[in-house]
Write a structure and sequence with these properties.
- This protein has about 450 residues and is an alpha/beta fold.
- It contains 15 helices and 21 strands.
- It has 3 domains: about 110 residues, Roll (Urease, subunit C, domain 1); about 260 residues, TIM Barrel (Alpha-Beta Barrel), CATH 3.20.20.140; about 40 residues, no CATH class.
- Strands 1, 2, 3, 4, 5, 15, 16, 17 and 18 form a 9-stranded mixed β-sheet that branches. A 6-stranded parallel β-sheet has the order 9-10-11-12-13-14. The protein has a 3-stranded parallel β-sheet with strand order 6-7-8.
- It starts with 11 loop residues before the first helix and ends in a 9-residue tail after the last strand.
């Protein structure tokens, strides 16, 4: 496995001829400042020749082409790759998601559809795969590994084990096992998680992780299983500790959005970006989105917003773009994306400014798909079966359904509570009032 969702046969002989000007390119992007993500340099006055779906040539010569696009000195960068996200969180179907993110420069995503799989099991995964086909957005699917997230403590629409994971990982278009969030199960060597990891290793797919603040021997045990990356990095010390322990990649989400939960919101993003900037080798740093609500997607953007924010916080622009392109492609073992170079898919973004990352034009597979923040042609809609729309089966709730009864009529009792005063939620014990056998809501000190 580990192959791209797009497995068309490439006429490499013709591509090689086009690279030498013996066949006309289908598209020539003329006069660009090309960001070479391999060498981290800007190649001025460059032309990019595209033959079919792939790049054939980069250089100063103006090769013959059936279509010429004068870029007038704009920067050309690779299409961005999001290696950790949940399409369902944006509350749209894959075609709608594609139309929202492509104009923002995201040309490849590796989603974890664990929301629908939590409800519908393997069939939900199959539905998301079907809905993600034939889009201008490349969708490289990850298999949810923790349904429910912790064995024996949660109920879900399915209980998935290694045999279920193997069914999904064998499906066309799968490149990875998604966030292995039951890190306690891994560290404690529990059969369910170790068997699932064994499936991933058997098929040679990427093993994506989720291990929050593991340190010391537990972190070493987690990494030793072959889990390669973790997006749960709320403080830079945690991310750097994982790299020092041998984790291949750390993934960083939107620093500005994360700062809203930090004790020092004003200095959070710059401190985080500064710590990352001090890492000598940045090939192990990737930027991703995770959950993006629809209003944020519309107002702020997608992976472009994550990259723009870290740049504004002090991180090197070229390294930031590498973290959303070539580093991400290498992590997913997708060697035909992530760079504007001969043989790669022609997923190319034009922008006026690498720092502002204002996305002007987007090409995928050598075709112009978006310009000025708009799709030129909407993706074909996908109809989900009626069975997928009838999964919530509850009686109409009443106010009484939300009452918590106490063992005394009136007075005060201690209750278990969730403390949400910091980045991570914590367990707490609170004393609250009881009136007429019903626990009363605790007064909140949070701002409305």
């Amino acid at each position: 496995m580990g192959k791209s969702v797009r497995v068309r046969r490439m006429g490499f002989r013709e591509l090689a001829r086009a690279a030498q000007g013996e066949l006309p390119c289908s598209l020539l992007l003329k006069n660009v400042k090309l960001l070479n993500v391999r060498t981290a340099e800007i190649m001025e006055n460059t032309n990019v020749g595209v033959y079919g779906e792939r790049v054939a040539y980069i250089g100063e010569e103006e090769l013959p082409a059936t279509s010429v696009h004068d870029c007038k000195g704009k920067y050309a960068i690779p299409g961005m790759i999001d290696t950790h996200l949940h399409i369902e969180s944006s509350q749209v179907t894959p075609p709608g998601f594609a139309d929202a993110v492509l104009p923002r420069g995201t040309t490849t995503v590796a989603p974890d559809p664990h929301e629908i799989v939590n409800v519908m099991g393997v069939e939900g995964f199959r539905l998301m795969l079907e809905a993600s086909k034939n889009l201008p957005l490349k969708v490289l699917m990850m298999v949810p590994t923790c349904v429910p997230s912790v064995e024996g403590l949660e109920t879900a629409g399915a209980d998935l084990f290694a045999e279920d994971i193997e069914k999904m990982v064998r499906m066309e278009g799968v490149v990875a096992l998604a966030e292995i969030m039951d890190y306690d199960g891994v560290v404690r060597n529990r059969d369910r998680m170790m068997d699932i990891i064994e499936v991933g290793r058997k098929y040679g797919v990427t093993l994506d992780g989720h291990c929050v603040f593991l340190t010391g021997k537990p972190l070493n045990a987690y990494i030793s299983t072959g889990i390669e990356a973790c997006h749960e990095n709320f403080v830079p010390e945690s991310a750097i500790a994982k790299l020092r322990a041998g984790m291949d990649y750390v993934k960083i989400r939107n620093l500005e959005l994360m700062s809203r939960l930090a004790p020092d919101p004003a200095g959070y993003a710059s401190a985080f970006a500064g710590a990352l900037q001090n890492v000598p080798d940045k090939r192990s740093i990737i930027f991703c989105t995770d959950d993006i609500m629809p209003d944020v997607l519309l107002q702020r953007g997608h992976l472009d917003d994550v990259v723009r924010t870290v740049i504004a916080s002090g991180y090197d622009p070229v390294a930031a773009i590498q973290g959303a392109t070539i580093n991400a492609a290498t992590h997913l073992r997708q060697h035909d994306i992530g760079a504007v170079a001969p043989g790669k898919f022609a997923d190319i973004i034009l922008t006026n400014d690498l720092r502002k990352l204002d996305i002007d034009t987007v090409f995928t597979n050598g075709e112009l798909v978006a310009k000025g923040g708009k799709m030129l042609r909407p993706s074909q809609k996908h109809a989900f079966p009626e069975s997928s729309k009838k999964t919530v089966k509850l009686a109409v709730p009443t106010e009484a359904d939300f009452h918590i009864r106490a063992p005394l009529r009136d007075g005060r009792v201690k209750v278990r509570a969730i403390d949400m005063s910091s980045l991570l939620t914590n367990f707490a014990i609170e004393e609250v009032e009881v009136r007429d056998w019903i626990v009363q809501p605790a007064a909140s000190s949070a701002e409305p």
